[in-house]
Amino acid sequence: MIRPVALCLCLLVAPAIAQEEAPLAPSDAADNPRIGALIDEIEWGVYCAQDPVRLEDAPDTAAGTINIVQDLPQIRFEDTVVPAALGMGFGVLARVAEGTDPGPVTVTVTHPPYPGSGITVERWIATMNDTAMSLFGFSFETQDELVTGTWTLIAEANGDELFHIRFEIVPPDFARPMVAACQGGFMS
Fold it and tell me: Which one of 16, 74, 144, 179 has the fewest CB atoms closer than 10 angstroms to its CB?
């Protein structure tokens, strides 16, 4: 998600705080993903999570912060099926059309309830521009986040939906090659 290496410090989410019900979309693949007219370039899928270079406040996330990474991750698997395993990440790399300034981008992740807290919605504000790809993603960092089921990743700016993508989070055994690729070996 980086075009010019102005080392776009990109956003990776660490969980949420909002207590709303997650609007789980139907599993009809015909409308997944939905890409808005302002998006010029987009990729989505599964990547190996990176260590953050810093954290940024994000009060509407479970962790209260989001991770800022130095480099955009490589989408290793262009898929919407994601293993629920620590160190795995999933999301979107996107760029708006030339000459477009969408302003602040609200990113919303919905998911099944986290055990204990019941959190189903996480939100934060991000930026994107017309010169470099930006990362909008989630990485599994704690056991409580490893909730299987339908997750959505939605970005909106000034009332316009930029993208809306559903991911299906599955037990790691259902996606062994993905987990092995990020953990540097094979799962037994």
Answer: 74
